[in-house]
Design a protein that fits this description.
Number of helices of chain A: 30
Distance between the termini of chain A: 74 Å
Strand content of chain A: under 5%
Shape of chain A: globular
Largest sheet of chain A: 2 strands, antiparallel
Membrane topology (chains A, B): Multi-pass membrane protein
Organism (chains A, B): Gouania willdenowi (Blunt-snouted clingfish)
CATH class of the largest domain in chain A: Mainly Alpha
Region (Disordered) (chains A, B): 1-22
CATH architecture of the largest domain in chain A: Orthogonal Bundle
Oligomer: homodimer
Helix content of chain A: 55-70%
Protein name (chains A, B): Two pore calcium channel protein 1-like
Largest interface: A-B, 82 and 87 residues
Mean pLDDT of chain A: 79
Biased composition (Acidic residues) (chains A, B): 1-10
């Protein structure tokens, strides 16, 4: 892409001098504007055919379809060996082939849109091609091996989440990865210093405590092996084994407690804070650079769009765009925008009322959300004018709009919460649920009869939607449940669960009544998209680790149902786990035997190391080996911290 | 204090019109400048006697003495019942009386310095008076009770740490407390929402899992009591009981794992982030307000100092201060400043060389640390000129200054680290220690013979000081140890411990060789003062909790030495603890039986709940930024860059 942003692309100068703009010109300008609007950085071919293909390429249906197929591809792990729901090999293979076909089609489409030399220079396209080829190769090899009944590994599954990063729409994700990669060198210095600090402290611990003949709780020698000390002190940084690791030394002398407290102060608090500060600063620095580049590209796109539609008046002077052309362009970019909204934007641009503008800011203007508030009369007003203007009806209106109505329903919700907490086997309680349902339905109907329905269910009335959906679902589920109970005489556990969840969710509505709470919730909803990008990032990393973990550790640890009488149940089916606290604490289900349990296990490992979200995924691989070690090393002293407070509380009663 | 910062205090206008300034004028101006320099906000009486008393009040010896007595007062808890080192009641009482006397004396001194009505309006003075009275009252009551052999509680000990906050020098601490207090209302809303979220999730957990008949590891019913669920889920926010709390449900169905993961996502990650953000923002807001006020007061003080010394030239015009007066003032404020440094400051102020200035920025200029590098010849050069200029000596100089010399010693340190890690009972290893000591001594001597000693031991050469002190201490300790060993035939454990610590500390020196590491360490040293303020804050809170805990829980849990054969040992001397995991995990020493064990216990509790403290750490870092900001605000445009760059240079180079 050219560095000089005002340079016009070749071949457009000619067209822009003509007064009458063709349909293709508008297509081209619309592409530039919508690229700028959605921060797309794609260098499209300017031929009319490519432009039309590009408009199709950006159609939302195709994008959604692509993500659906990526999701299907990722979800295949549920059905492949080791499976949650086993399917025959040919079925998963067929679905995967279909996915590969879709991805290839999408890539071919993309190749037709941008110039050939640009396509082959872009690493993300090369990446997708390599992924597709390797996957195909792996499928053939695996199929052949299985056909001849030999052992095979589906290694190409590790590559699947990389598609999420490399598709054209994964811009945000690529940006996040790039920022992380750029920040790594700076982070590594702090990390090295942190490791150095642990090593020095471990050496000191070895020299101070190794020769005292101290014993741990299970009678083994305490702090005599350097590498064991390093491991214990590393775990102490996460505070997972505090205070267990310190107790033998503390029992011998309280000076050792000072050593451990100093260690935690330096490593857990000071180092982790510095670490976080460095990560945050560097990430911010590189993200800022990314955004700066984004803005440059955006400007460039707008200048190009402008150069396509510009007109030079007969007296010479600055080139401008007139109102008719502008309207046509905006209609093409956002067909569903109302006329009033479009005219509002024009008046913002043409604030001197000259009938013509220079529009570098249009893309940002289009992104501004304009809430159109139409004060429409209530339909009842036109249907039953006499009834609607009667005194009782007006009184009802005033009642529903009154603050006391909100407070009344908050109280009802609180009473409901108490009833939910009580035992539902009591018939009185279960009948009361019907009463609450009726009360909630009444509330919605009352509100609907007072407020204009289209305003009530507008796109921004999150809580109205929430309320109505929850109440109606609860009504349906309760009716189904009663029907099943009265006909068959038994209750379905699943439907009951759904009813319980819906009942409890209804209580959340209270939050909306308190202004401060509403502000906090709205803020959370606002940062949703950022969390979504982060979620994808986590998904990519978890998926890769889960696949690798499954291939390495599958069936090493087995889970037996509670009613199983298998003798192997007491040691999770692995003789190495006999007598370990891993087996004793009933952790058998924490294994890599399926994609679901792998994900849950990885989340558990992340949670224990909560001290740094940003670092968690760097250390996850290490955690896998830590997990492997846990299978062999007896007596892990983790996860016991809080017992001690509980005991303290019971003892002081 | 007046809001109009340019208003002159009454009674000074007269004096400032005289051309010859008296000694008292300089005293007064010096007070204003040094008050501004150290951000003191004290409204001093302007009478010459009060000014002289105030100069004495701010003398560093008196301040150090005050803090020593506060420390003694706080440390009394070590000797009072329940004591670590028991002392008779009369001894601690006498020391406490002495402390009270010192505090009273200091307060009286303060009362003489500031106007009477200001003294009685200031809540911190009232606070100190009340603390002193209550302490005296409590001592009398307790003494009387003890004399008549009755039970008494020394309740006034809780008030002791409040002295730290209320003494004149506790400005930073008061500022921190005030910011926290002001931020509390905003924080409480997020906290309430957080509590609400836990209650709702607990209700859902009760309804979903309460009726499934699940059992925990020890066979008790799982998730059947609402309040137990709330407690378990609260603990889960700190991730301390993850994944134990989830295992019974997860073993029954993996859908429940999703419930727990969602809970952790919402409460541990999202809510804690929002909580942090709100705390951080509010703390920042209020701290900014505090700093703004500080800057206003600072300006006011400087204007007053100026008005004392200003001269109006005969032609009228702006009042100024001439060079002689300025020099005399600076000499009085900072007697140890070198002439060159003072002249440098003057030339910065009087950049147009007019011989007279208006000096609102002096206070900030005085705070700038100017490192004076004097290139003095080495003393050897003057003592033995012939030897020092000889070829082998010059070669040695080049060798020692070479990069390879540093690398050589880094390698020696690493080899030393390996030797330390090996078993010191091996005679070869223990003799090698002598070799390393000699090598380190040789390094210091070589460096001393090449670099100028006063530059080598300058105030900013942290690592040279560190090195020399460690090596000399290690030498002395090793010699003492050998003497003891060869004479008595036994080794003293304490001396060996000290030797080990010194040996390991020596290894830290490696950090200095790598530039990036040095930068990180220097940054940590720079934020030291901020951490110190925070440390005092923690101390105040811990002390109060420790004293209350000791009175409530002392001797409830007893610790028995490992070789004790007391039957009560297995349950920490408390029958209620029989068979609990508290006793089983050997936590008996985690008790409130003395101030030391109370502090260690409180630290342990803090570490497990580390999330609640992380916000406080963040705010500490913020103070460092504010410190920079504070320097920026008062400076006029011309000096702003100068100050900022200078500060940046000293802070982050």
């Amino acid at each position: 892409m050219s560095e000089n942003i005002y340079e016009d692309p070749p071949g457009e100068e000619k067209r822009s001098s003509e007064s009458e703009k063709s349909n293709e010109d508008f297509d081209l300008a619309a592409i530039y504007v919508s690229d700028a609007q959605y921060n797309r950085n794609i260098c499209v071919d300017t031929s009319p055919q490519a432009v039309r293909l590009y408009l199709l390429y950006n159609h939302w249906v195709l994008k959604v379809l692509l993500y659906v197929f990526i999701l299907v591809d990722l979800c295949l792990a549920v059905f492949e060996d080791p499976a949650v729901v086993p399917l025959p090999l040919w079925a998963t293979m067929l679905v995967e082939l279909l996915c590969l076909f879709v991805f290839t089609f999408r890539l071919t489409h993309y190749a037709k849109v941008i110039p050939r030399e640009k396509f082959w220079k872009d690493p993300k396209n090369i990446c997708i091609i390599v992924i597709l080829m390797l996957t195909l190769l792996d499928m053939i090899i695996y199929g052949a091996l299985k056909a001849s009944d030999q052992y095979g590994v589906r290694w190409s599954r590790v590559l699947r989440p990389l598609l999420l990063v490399n598709v054209t729409e994964g811009r945000q994700l690529r940006r996040a990865f790039r920022s992380i990669r750029n920040a790594l060198p700076e982070i590594s210095y702090v990390f090295l210093l942190f490791i150095f600090s642990i090593l020095i402290f471990s050496l000191m611990a070895l020299k101070l405590m190794g020769k005292r003949g101290l014993k741990t709780l299970d009678g083994s020698p305490y702090f005599t092996n350097y590498f064991e000390i390093v491991f214990e002190l590393y775990v102490l940084v996460t505070t997972a084994n505090s205070p267990d690791v310190m107790m033998p030394a503390y029992n011998s002398s309280f000076f050792f407690a000072i050593f451990f407290i100093f260690y935690i102060l330096v490593n857990t608090y000071i180092f982790m804070s510095v670490f976080l500060a460095v990560v945050y600063n560097n990430y911010k620095k590189y993200l800022k650079e990314e955004i700066r580049q984004l803005v440059r590209v955006k400007r460039q796109k707008m200048v190009r769009a402008f150069s396509v539609l510009q007109e030079v008046s007969e007296q010479g002077g600055v080139p401008t765009v007139n109102h008719a052309h502008w309207s046509r362009l905006v209609r093409r970019v956002q067909p569903r925008m109302s006329n009033a909204h479009r005219e509002l934007l024009w008046s913002v641009l043409d604030h001197q009322n000259q009938g013509q503008v220079q529009f570098v800011q249009v893309a940002d203007l289009l992104n501004i959300e304009v809430i159109t508030l139409k004060s429409r009369p209530h339909p009842f007003h036109s249907w039953f004018p006499a009834l609607y203007s009667s005194t009782p009806c007006l009184l009802l209106c005033r009642l529903v709009r009154h603050r006391a109505f909100v407070i009344l329903y908050d109280i009802i919700i609180l009473v409901n919460a108490v009833f939910i907490g009580l035992d539902e086997d009591n018939p009185l309680i279960s009948y009361s649920e019907w009463m609450f349902l009726v009360l909630y339905l009444l509330e919605i109907l009352l509100k609907l009869s007072v407020f204009e329905p289209r305003a009530f269910f507008s796109r921004h009335s999150f809580w109205n939607w929430f309320d109505t959906i929850i109440v109606i679902c609860a009504l349906i589920a309760t009716i189904i449940n009663s029907a099943i109970t009265s006909s068959g005489g038994y209750t379905s556990r699943q439907i009951l669960d759904i009813i319980f969840i819906l009942r409890v969710l209804r209580l959340i509505r209270v939050v909306d009544s308190i202004k401060r709470f509403r502000t906090i919730i709205n803020t959370l909803i606002r940062i949703g998209p950022a969390i979504l990008t982060f979620g994808q990032l986590i998904l990519v990393i978890y998926y890769i680790f889960a696949i690798v973990g499954m291939e390495l550790f599958k069936d090493k640890v087995k889970f037996f149902e509670a009613d199983s009488s298998d003798p192997e149940k007491s040691f999770c089916g692995n003789p190495q786990l006999k007598g370990t606290s891993f087996a004793h604490l009933n952790y058998c289900k924490n294994n890599f035997n399926s994609i679901v349990s792998s994900f849950i296990l990885l989340v558990e490992l992340t949670v224990v190391n909560q001290w740094s979200w940003s670092w968690a995924w760097n250390s996850t691989y290490y955690e896998c080996f830590l997990y492997l070690e846990q299978l062999q090393v007896p007596a892990s002293k983790k996860y016991r911290n809080f017992l001690f407070i509980k005991e303290l509380m019971t003892c002081f009663h």
